[in-house]
Amino acid sequence: MLLALLMGLGAPRPAATQVGTTTDTITGTVARPDGQPHVGAIALATSAATHVTRGQSTDAHGQFTILFPESGGQYQLIVRYFGMEPVRLTVVRQEHENRFEANVRMELAALPDPIASILSGRDSLRLSAAQTVQLRWISDWLRSRNVASSEVGMLLALERARRVLTPSQWTKLSGALTPSESRSPASPVASVQEAGQPQGTPAPQAPTAEARAPSRHSVPAPQALSVYTGLSNIYDSNIDHSQLSPESYGVLLTVGGQYRQRSSGTTVELQYDGVFRRYTNTDLWNRPGHAASVSLVQRVAPHWSVGAAAEVALNGSAEDRVLRNEYSVQPELEYRFNRSTRVQLYGEYLLKRYPNPLGQNAVDPRVGVRFRRLVGARGSLGLTGRYEYNRADSTRHTYIGWTAGADVANPMWPGGRIGSSVRYRIRRYTSRLVDVGTTEVLRRDGDLVASVTWQQPLYRVWEVGLSYRYENYQSNDTRKEFREHLVSMTLKRWW
């Protein structure tokens, strides 16, 4: 018994073996370009001593924690997120300290269209049909809101794409592990495998942003150019905007394209839309129309950007349903409160040229403000206001105008969207008199336009849309009053 007691006292205690163990902890926060926490970024740390790599995805607060049971002393840390420039830094253990803190801020990479890049690699990512439809909806929605090429649009596209993909797909897309980092992680806390890779499955290998040699898992570079064709059937209850209300049916063939390039906070975009019309009960509108624009936007501060755009519209109008040629230049100044809210001040110098002038040709300088807020995951709300002074060749057509508008967009399952808008405009003529009873007064017009549009992506590259537009034009000159209903159905194909 005495021998057994002595042996028991001499036996090593489990707790005693842990006293001298050192665990290194690497923790930090990852921020987006706008300073908000970056959810889903992948942080990988490699020990310089053991060459073991461990990692974790950032949580809802943009934070990560990586544990190493051994003391490595020095670690190479890399943070990756698809569409962002990788961030690399070295963290070194200080004497008597085993906790490292590394806070990083990521910047957008030169990726013109992240959604197009993901879709171009849908085979290697094994995207489902539902995922493809959702991604196309995100891309079309951002394009329709004119934010796709802005920093806000890029960040929103990346965030929503991450929610559509599975964790393993996103890990593969972000290139979590390169061939030199392919050792299996063994961290006791959330590893790259826990971020979406099934246990026991080799970690996916994808090229990093700076990789040059393609591999079988490479995602092809996105195409900066997109082209579409479309066919529309239209019913117009009052095509010439008169009190006689002549009905018309039309067939429209449309073709268009867009080129977008973004680098170092600068975005350049070119766009063209062409239409070939054939209407009944009119000869005026049976001619082709063309619209082209070029825009340049430069981010000058974390919340500020400046830009300018030039537009040309031939045999049509960017805003009104009238036949004329327009040439405009638009400087813009935008402030982003956060990733979902922004306000834009703009000016516009617009030239109007009519086929039968009769004094209507005009110079129309404008100044306005636009406010936009993203609502929920895929909704949006927009408000606009504008002042203009239309100086025509004849004072008969010179007026001062005020315009206010609002628009709302909401998603519809599966992958569709519905949007509505309303606009009210007042025109006060400066020298055009009309008879009201026995008195002559200056003419004043009010124009109310409301519309609703439904768009639904079909298989892969097809889209169908239905729209309705109502216009009610009122005036103290009753001869100029009219109402119009316009219904259209469009089938579009992206190439």
Short description:
The protein has 3 domains: 22-111 and 167-209, Immunoglobulin-like; 114-166; 225-494, Beta Barrel (Porin). The chain contains 6 helices and 22 strands. The N and C termini lie far apart (89 Å).
What features would you describe in this structure?
- The protein is mainly beta and 495 residues long.
- The chain has three domains: 22-111 and 167-209, Immunoglobulins (Immunoglobulin-like, Sandwich), CATH 2.60.40; 114-166; 225-494, Beta Barrel (Porin), CATH 2.40.160.
- Helix content is 12%, strand content 49%.
- It is built from six helices and 22 strands.
- A 14-stranded antiparallel β-barrel has the order 9-10-11-12-13-14-15-16-17-18-19-20-21-22.
- The longest helix has 16 residues, at 129-144.
- It is elongated and about 95 Å long.
- Residues 1-21 and 176-222 have low confidence and may be disordered.
How is the secondary structure organized here?
Blueprint: H1 2-10, E1 24-31, E2 42-47, E3 53-57, E4 63-68, E5 74-80, E6 87-92, E7 99-101, E8 104-105, H2 114-120, H3 122-125, H4 129-144, H5 151-164, H6 167-174, E9 225-236, E10 248-263, E11 266-279, E12 289-299, E13 304-314, E14 325-338, E15 341-353, E16 362-375, E17 379-392, E18 399-412, E19 416-436, E20 439-457, E21 462-475, E22 482-494
